[in-house]
Amino acid sequence: MSRKQKRIPWPMLVTGLVLLSALDFVSGRPQRVISSNTNTPLGTSPRVGTAPVLLPEQSGEGLVIAIRPDGFVPSNIELTKGRYIFIVQNHSGIRDLTFRLDRDTGERIYEVRSQKPRWKNAFDLKPGSYVLSIVDHPKWLCTIRVKPH
Q1: pTM for this one?
Q2: Which of 5, 12, 81, 128 is the most exposed place for a label (fewest CB within 10 A)?
Q3: What's the pLDDT at 18?
Q4: Is CATH 2.60.40.420 what the domain over 10-147 is classified as, yes or no?
């Protein structure tokens, strides 16, 4: 017996991400979106989004972060350890940005130059502190604190 996995069409996925972006601007805090591949039921976290979004070929919890002309929104995030898919939406008006994710110890986790209005990448975050930053804008920082539980 074969089971067919249902996939969300790309236009619906893009529409969902745009709606989540709007929620992010309204709430001023990150929206966490549960991927349909996880076993976490909706409503178990105070920051869980209102609707699940399937992120193709990846499992983990989506974390939507916006960049505005004055920096990241939110600028501080607290999470528990685990796999997170960062969805960073550039609303700064600047096209060419270099993103960095560093541990507070100085260890570089990731760096990417992007001209796109949105980038995403999955990270397995261990307990500790991280800083998401923009290379040419040293005051634009998002501090991410990861707790063990």
Answers
A1: 0.62
A2: 5
A3: 57
A4: yes
